[in-house]
Amino acid sequence: LLPIAGEFAGQHIKKARDLIIKKLQTKCLVEKIEDNYKHVVRTCYKCGTTIEPQIKNQWFVKMKPLALKALEKIKNGEINYIPEHYEKISTYWLENIMDWNISRQIVWGISIPAKICVKCEHGMVDLENKITKCESCDGEVTQDNDTFDTWFSSGQWPFVALGYPDSKDFETFYPTDVMETAGDIIFFWVSRMIMLGLYVTDKIPFKNVYLHGMVLDAKSQKMSKSKGNVIDPMTFTEKYGTDAFRMGMVIGNTPGTSLALAEERIRGYSKFANKIWNAARFVLENTKDFDLTKTTELGEEDKKSEEELENLMKEVTKEMDEYKFYIVAEKLYHYFWHTFADIIIERSKKKILEDKNSDSAKTLLLSQLTTLLKALHPFMAFITEEIWSMMPIKNKNLLLIEKWPFDGAQD
Q1: HEC profile for the chain?
Q2: CA-wise closest residue to 313 among 371, 380, 252, 383
Q3: Are 252 and 324 in contact (CB under 8 A)?
Q4: If 0-12 CB within 10 Å is exposed, 13-18 middle and 19+ buried, where does residue 357 land?
Q5: Measured between alpha carbons, how far is 41 from 38 in angstroms, rounded to an integer?
Q6: What angle do CA 147, 152, 153 make, to 5 degrees?
Q7: How many Cα atoms are found within 13 Å in the side-chain-facing hemisphere of 355?
Q8: Exposed end of the chain (fewer CB within 10 Å): N or C?
Q9: How many CB atoms lie within 10 A of CB 367?
Q10: CB-side exposure of 344: number of CA atoms within 13 Å?
């Protein structure tokens, strides 16, 4: 127990409890003792140990001046929130902000660089570890054992991770374009990154905040070990493949909305991966002797198909720039399966078999497959990269660093 406990100071709380009760009883201050009294007991979220209340000086950060700078940037439109309603949520919290207790009495975490006076308990920030006497009473000092709140250190991540202040990475990449995280930590992390970034660097840490929802089980219930409904991504990726799991996590996952994730959903996208593989194998087998150097004019039917894909790429490029990944992935899924595989490949079979306009058909097959592999790569990275390695294209890079397949888009 702390010194405030008087004669019980220094004793372990479990031993001191019985002694405190006896002391109270001797003073007739105990009315009754109940065996089945229920009340809330705070426990450590890591180890489950009971947290004992204690009176102790803490370190605080005055937040109002920091919040005002953040509000100015947000209201000026320098930070864009997706979905938009999170801007109102953030500004309301910032406008009503309270001072922040940044000290924690835990053994893990970053130590607070401060000294505490043994005599008067005055706290002093000591960044360079040079303070040897109390600045208030000239008493002896000792190192503060407190650690920083985890959000205080992680709130500085955008610039610290880039080597602030003297690094090429910081000069090149700060501020970043997009911060993607869950909506439940909009205050704990996102708002504090904005405030601390402005305070330290005088710049916003990112221009766009994309907030995804929570991943729920198939019945839209929050996952928990006690319910036994936790979805292990490793189990699904081993069973259906990483690409199928990625597509299952993207399609239908609108920003700010929780996603119900069922095994059937992942299984369905594993069939799509098989479809891509089989379609690519058909194209490669039927174009292996095709002379890619000659110029081939597309037939009317194939020309219309090429224009259709060009229009789709123009459409999805705009949506990618707007961070509508869930829409883009679904459109590409439907085009590949229902247009490229079901229509273009099927009609090409007849053209190639009968050798009627076969050069046009082969040119279109290679052109469409090339475009679709590039477009699908952000969503199904592994199978597209593998197929890309087999494509008969000279001087190609890894698909990961190839240009996006639309001239109007940024690289």
Answers
A1: CCHHHHHHCCCCHHHHHHHHHHHHHHCCCCCCCCCCCCCCCCECCCCCCECCCCCCCCCEECCHHHHHHHHHHHHCCCCEEECCHHHHHHHHHHHCCCCEECEECCCCCCECCEEEECCCCCEEECCCCCCCECCCCCCEEEECCCEECHHHHHCCHHHHCCCCCCCHHHHHHCCEEEEEEEHHHHHHHHHHHHHHHHHHHCCCCEEEEEEECCEECCCCCCCCCCCCCCCCHHHHHHHHCHHHHHHHHHCCCCCCCCEECCHHHHHHHHHHHHHHHHHHHHHHHHCCCCCCCCCCCCCHHHHHHHHHHHHHHHHHHHHHHCCCHHHHHHHHHHHHHHHHHHHHHHHHHHHHHHCCCHHHHHHHHHHHHHHHHHHHCCCCHHHHHHHHCCCCCCCCCCHHHCCCCCCCCCC
A2: 371
A3: no
A4: buried
A5: 9
A6: 80
A7: 1
A8: C
A9: 17
A10: 30
- Please give the single-letter amino acid code of residue 248: G
Short-list 199, 125, 201, CA closest to 162:
201
| Gap between the Cα atoms of 245 and 236, Å rounded | 7
Digitized pLDDT (tens) for each residue of the chain, 411 residues in all: 566 678 888 888 888 889 999 999 999 999 988 888 888 888 887 788 888 777 788 999 999 999 999 999 999 999 999 999 999 999 999 999 999 999 998 888 899 999 999 999 899 999 999 999 999 999 999 999 999 999 999 999 999 999 999 999 999 999 999 999 988 899 999 999 999 999 999 999 999 999 988 888 888 888 877 788 888 889 999 999 999 999 999 998 889 888 888 889 999 999 999 999 999 999 999 999 888 778 889 999 999 999 999 999 999 999 999 999 999 999 999 999 999 999 999 999 999 988 888 999 999 999 999 999 999 999 999 999 999 999 998 889 999 999 999 876 444
